[in-house]
# Entry
Amino acid sequence: MCKRVIWFFIITGCIVFNNALAKDLSDGFVDLETFIPTIELNIRYYTSNNFVGKRIDGYESPKALLATQAAEALKNVQAELATFGLGLKVYDAYRPQRAVDHFVRWAKDLDDIKMKLKYYPEVNKANLFTENYIADKSSHSRGSTVDVTIVSLSDTDLVEMDMGTNWDFFSPNSWLQSSIVTPQQRANRALLHNMMSKHGFKPLKKEWWHFTLENEPYADRYFDFPIQ
# Structure
């Protein structure tokens, strides 16, 4: 009987500890829509409009969460763009590790190619890992990476600047310095790049939309709390 009681307290103690830990891990994050009220969101992983073709694990709400330091830097980008009648649209921010795990499972199912024409027409799905389009870890899970584009704040329908490809389009055409896109599209990418870099973000050369805060607060941690 005594052993059972001790075992019960060990188990329940671990459960309480783990729940508290999960709460603490999200305390350093903010909701971008609240923190930057003028920002636009299009959280595709909450929908079926993404390269997997279904809502992604961990996206329980169409919110964009970001570590507070990264959100403050992004707020400065938004403020400067606003002086030109422009603003940011966010496609993705913090990404739970369980979402990355979902991507990995999907990538291994070579028969599921229903979104190929829209998101990866030039890439054989079997090569998504070797060509670095899919990985088992993502900087998004560290909380200071964001996928963004620029929109016009003066238009009622918030028209996106033409960046040459859609977000999450797996192709060399999406590389920041691609020579395949038009000069105007390269100029639009350069504007986004320059604004983000000015306020402390570094780009990913193969994705014009992807930026990580240089001095990210959780550089060695990969979080997994769901977006709620």
